[in-house]
Design goal:
The complex is a heterotrimer of chains A (245), B (96) and C (196). Chain A has 245 residues and is mostly helical. Chain A has one domain (2-240). Chain A has ten helices and no strands. The two termini of chain A are 29 Å apart. Chain B has 96 residues and is an all-alpha fold. Chain B has one domain (2-90). Chain B is 76% helix and 0% strand. Chain B has helices at 2-5, 8-27, 35-60, 68-90. In chain B, helix 2 runs antiparallel to helix 3 and helix 3 runs antiparallel to helix 4 (68-90). The termini of chain B are far apart. Chain C has 196 residues and is mainly α. Chain C has a single domain (20-194), classed as Cytochrome c oxidase, subunit III, four-helix bundle (Four Helix Bundle (Hemerythrin (Met), subunit A), Up-down Bundle). Chain C is 82% helix and 0% strand. Chain C has helices at residues 2-11, 20-46, 48-55, 60-85, 89-119, 128-158, 168-194. The longest helix of chain C has 31 residues, at 89-119. Chain C is elongated and about 60 Å long. Classes of the chains: A mainly alpha (245), B mainly alpha (96), C mainly alpha (196). The interface between B and C is large, with 46 and 46 residues.
Chain lengths: 245, 96, 196
C-alpha cells in the first residue's frame, strides 16, 4: 500500500507541475517573462492586454502550484529509509522542500492581482509585476537545504534499493549550484542575468524541470524495486513457515 | 624534499607555471602591437590557456587514464570551448 | 588475432579517476562556465572599446598571483592523493593543508581586489564590463569557497586514512573538483585581465 501511495503522490505532483508549466507559458505569458527594463506604462499595457488570460492562469495555478509538496514528502520518506538513527537530513530535506513551494505558489498570485485591476496607476502594477517575477527567479534559499540533503544521504549511504544512487547525488549537487545564480537577477535590468535571461530564467527552469522529472523517475523505479523485494521476502517467509509446519 | 621535486606532478606544475609567466609576458605586448600583432597575441593567449587546461585535466585530474568516452568529453570541452572563444574574439564587429 | 588485441587492452587499463558521478558534476559545471565565457565575449563584442578601457583599470598582478596560487594548490592536492595511495597519511594530510593555505591566499587577494574596486566607486552598476567582471569572478570565487569546505572535509579525514579501510577515490573526487576550480581561473585570467 505504501509503495503504491508513494508512486501515486509522485505522479500527482508531476502532473500538477506540467499544468503549472503550461499555465506559466500560455496563460500567464511569463515563459519567458517580458524584459526587465520595461517602463511602468509598458508593464501596465501588458496587464491590460492579457488581463483575462493572466487571471485564468492565476486561477489554474491556485489549484496546482504546490506540486513540490508531494515530491518533497516522497523524497523525505525515501531518505528516511536510508538514514540510520535520527532522521536529520530527512527532516531538513522535508522542511526545505515544502518551503520552496511558497515561491512557486506566490508569483502567479501576484500576476493575478496585477491583472485584477488593470486600470490602476501603472507604477503600482509594475510593483506587483516586479514582486512576482523577482520572487519567481531569485528565491533559491530553500533549494539548498532540499538538494544538499539528498546529495549527502546519497553519497554517504549504501543501499541496493536506494532511491538516490551516487550519480544522482552528484547531479543534484550540480543542479543546486546551478540554481543559485538566480539570486543575481536583483542586479541587472537586461542581459543574461536579468529575469528573462539565459542564466537566470532559461537555464534554471530547464535544470529544475529535468531534475524533478529525472529524480521522480529514479524514485519510482526504486519504489517498485523495494516493493518487489518486500513481496519476495514475504513469499520466502511464508514458504519458510509452510516448510516448518 | 627531493622526493617531492622529482615527481611527474612537479614537472607538470613547472610547465604550467612557465606557460603562465609566458602568457603574462605576452599580454604586455599589446601596447606595442599593430593590428595583426594584436590578433596573434590574442590567439596565443587563449590557445596557451586551453593547453594549460588540458594539462590540468589530463595530468592533475588523471583523465589520461580515463576510458575513451570520458577522455573524449574532456578533449571536446577543451577544443570546443577554445574554438568558440576564438570565434567570438574575431567576429566582425556590429555595424555602427 | 583476438589474443593480441585483448593483450593490448590489458596492457593499458582504463579507470575512471574518482568516480563517474563527480565527472558528471565537473563537466556540467564546466559547460555552465563555458556559457558564461560566451556571455562575457558577447558583451565585449558589442562594446569593445568599453571593455578594453575598463580592463586597463584591473590589477593584472592580482589575477596572475591567483593563477599561481591555484596552480600550486593543485600541485598540493595531486601530490596529497599520490601520498595517500601509498598510505602515507601524515604527508597526505600536510599536503592538503598546503592546498588549503593556497586557497586562503587566493581568497585574501580576491577580497583585497574587490574592496579596492568598491573603494574606488566601481561596482556592478558601473558599466557592462564591471557587471560581468564581478559576476564571473564572483561565481568562480564561490566555487573556491565551496572547494575550501571540500578540502577541509578531506583534511579532517586524511590524518587517519588507511588504504585498507578507506577509499582513496573520495580524495581523488575532491581533488578533481579542486582542479576544476584551478582550470576555470586559468581561462578566466586571460579572458578578463589580459586579452584585448
Amino acid at each position: 500500500m505504501t509503495h503504491r501511495s508513494q508512486i501515486i503522490i509522485l505522479i500527482w505532483g508531476l502532473v500538477f507541475m506540467a499544468i503549472y508549466g503550461l499555465a506559466l507559458w500560455r496563460l500567464l505569458h511569463m515563459w519567458p517573462p517580458p524584459p526587465a527594463n520595461w517602463t511602468a506604462e509598458q508593464v501596465a499595457q501588458f496587464y491590460r492586454e492579457n488581463t483575462l488570460d493572466i487571471r485564468i492562469g492565476a486561477m489554474v495555478t491556485s489549484w496546482c502550484s504546490a506540486f513540490m509538496v508531494p515530491f518533497a514528502c516522497v523524497a523525505a520518506i525515501q531518505l528516511r529509509r536510508l538514514e540510520k538513527g535520527l532522521p536529520v537530513w530527512t527532516v531538513l530535506h522535508l522542511a526545505g522542500g515544502i518551503l520552496m513551494s511558497m515561491f512557486l505558489v506566490l508569483p502567479p498570485i501576484f500576476f493575478g492581482v496585477a491583472a485584477y485591476t488593470p486600470d490602476r496607476a501603472p507604477e503600482i502594477t509594475q510593483l506587483m509585476h516586479e514582486y512576482g517575477l523577482l520572487m519567481l527567479v531569485t528565491t533559491d534559499q530553500y533549494y539548498i537545504f532540499m538538494m544538499i540533503s539528498i546529495a549527502v544521504v546519497s553519497l554517504t549511504t549504501n543501499d541496493e534499493l536506494t532511491a538516490f544512487p551516487r550519480w544522482l547525488g552528484y547531479y543534484t549537487l550540480w543542479a543546486a549550484l546551478a540554481f543559485e545564480v538566480g539570486a543575481l537577477a536583483f542586479l541587472p535590468k537586461s542581459g543574461p542575468f536579468s529575469w528573462n535571461g539565459i542564466m537566470v530564467f532559461w537555464m534554471p527552469i530547464s535544470v529544475f524541470g529535468v531534475w524533478v522529472i529525472t529524480t521522480s523517475i529514479v524514485m519510482i523505479r526504486a519504489i517498485l524495486a523495494q516493493q518487489r523485494a518486500e513481496e519476495g521476502l514475504a513469499a520466502e517467509t511464508v514458504g519458510g513457515l509452510e516448510s516448518t509446519v | 624534499m627531493t622526493r617531492y621535486l622529482n615527481t611527474p606532478i612537479t614537472i607538470v606544475w613547472l610547465i604550467l607555471a612557465a606557460l603562465m609567466a609566458l602568457s603574462w609576458a605576452i599580454g604586455d605586448r599589446y601596447e606595442t602591437a599593430d593590428v595583426d600583432g594584436v590578433a596573434t597575441i590574442t590567439i596565443a593567449l587563449m590557445v596557451l590557456a586551453f593547453l594549460k587546461v588540458r594539462m590540468v585535466m589530463l595530468h592533475f585530474m588523471d583523465a589520461k587514464v580515463a576510458p575513451f568516452a570520458l577522455r573524449l568529453m574532456v578533449e571536446l570541452w577543451v577544443a570546443g570551448v577554445c574554438l568558440i572563444v576564438l570565434f567570438m574574439y574575431f567576429r566582425p564587429p556590429t555595424v555602427g | 588475432m583476438t589474443d593480441s588485441v585483448s593483450e593490448k587492452q590489458a596492457a593499458t587499463p582504463t579507470r575512471i579517476p574518482g568516480e563517474a558521478g563527480v565527472w558528471l558534476f565537473v563537466l556540467g559545471d564546466m559547460i555552465l562556465f563555458a556559457v558564461m565565457f560566451g556571455i562575457f565575449l558577447h558583451y565585449r563584442w558589442l562594446e569593445p572599446e568599453l571593455f578594453v578601457q575598463s580592463q586597463a583599470t584591473l590589477n593584472t598582478s592580482y589575477g596572475a598571483i591567483n593563477v599561481l596560487l591555484l596552480l600550486t594548490s593543485s600541485w598540493f592536492v595531486a601530490s596529497a592523493v599520490e601520498r595517500l595511495k601509498k598510505n602515507e597519511a601524515r604527508e597526505g594530510h600536510q599536503l592538503l593543508m598546503g592546498a588549503f593555505a593556497c586557497g586562503t591566499g587566493f581568497s585574501v587577494i580576491k577580497l583585497l581586489e574587490y574592496s579596492e574596486k568598491i573603494g574606488a566607486g566601481i561596482t556592478v552598476d558601473t558599466n557592462t564590463f564591471y557587471l560581468y567582471y564581478f559576476f564571473l569572478t564572483g561565481i568562480h570565487f564561490l566555487h573556491v569557497v565551496i572547494g575550501m569546505f571540500v578540502l577541509g572535509y578531506l583534511i579532517s579525514k586524511a590524518r587517519t586514512f588507511d588504504v585498507s579501510r578507506n577509499d582513496v577515490a573520495h580524495y581523488e573526487s575532491g581533488g578533481i573538483y579542486w582542479h576544476m576550480v584551478d582550470l576555470l581561473w586559468i581561462v578566466l585570467f586571460p579572458l578578463i585581465y589580459l586579452v584585448q
